[in-house]
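Lab notebook, design round three. We kept the backbone fixed and only want residue identities now. Task for the bench partner: fill in a sequence for the structure below.
Input structure tokens:
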């Protein structure tokens, strides 16, 4: 049973004693002080018996070291991928600038040593001029060349100096079955000669 004011009054009444309020207060206060002192003593005793070990430093644990190594490896892998992508992009631009055919660009890129290329701080290839010359000589077969030719004049369209063309003249074909005049020229000649 708990030691309360109610307990003190009932015990005194059962004993046939009437106790004053001041005595009741003194008994309760003494009981609380003794209880608090006992509790503090027990807590101190428990703390002394169960001293906490200092917490291990997180950086010294194997789990931390493993996790840090995994993270550093991941960062290095991402860095390598970004560097490789930047080198490929710069090398692709250099191949295009050198004139490598768009159809052959991927093939040349696959067999080229892109990893040995060095980039400057702006992302451009160091020694690009020498590398371009090397590409032009090494991959000459893949570099597209464009040649501009004039119209063939060996078989000019017949013109009888009359200025007027017939429908047969306009639709005349060469030995390969191609029209002598282009579609635009045929349309113009039809309009000028009023042929329908």
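Proposed sequence:
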């Amino acid at each position: 049973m708990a030691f309360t004011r109610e307990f003190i009054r009932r015990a005194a009444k059962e004993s046939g004693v009437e106790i004053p309020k001041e005595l009741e207060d003194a008994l309760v206060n003494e009981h609380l002080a003794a209880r608090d002192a006992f509790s503090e003593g027990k807590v101190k005793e428990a703390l002394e018996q169960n001293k906490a070990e200092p917490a291990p430093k997180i950086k010294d644990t194997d789990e931390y070291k493993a996790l840090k190594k995994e993270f550093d490896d991941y960062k290095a892998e991402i860095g390598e991928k970004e560097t490789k992508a930047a080198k490929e992009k710069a090398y692709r631009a250099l191949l295009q600038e050198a004139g490598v055919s768009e159809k052959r660009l991927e093939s040349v890129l696959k067999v080229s040593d892109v990893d040995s290329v060095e980039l400057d701080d702006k992302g451009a290839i160091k020694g690009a001029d020498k590398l371009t010359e090397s590409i032009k000589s090494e991959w000459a077969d893949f570099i597209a060349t464009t040649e501009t030719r004039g119209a063939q004049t060996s078989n000019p369209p017949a013109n009888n100096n009359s200025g007027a063309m017939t429908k047969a003249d306009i639709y005349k074909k060469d030995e390969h079955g191609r029209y002598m005049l282009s579609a635009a020229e045929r349309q113009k000649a039809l309009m000028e000669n009023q042929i329908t």
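Keep this in mind before ordering anything: The chain has a mean pLDDT of 82.
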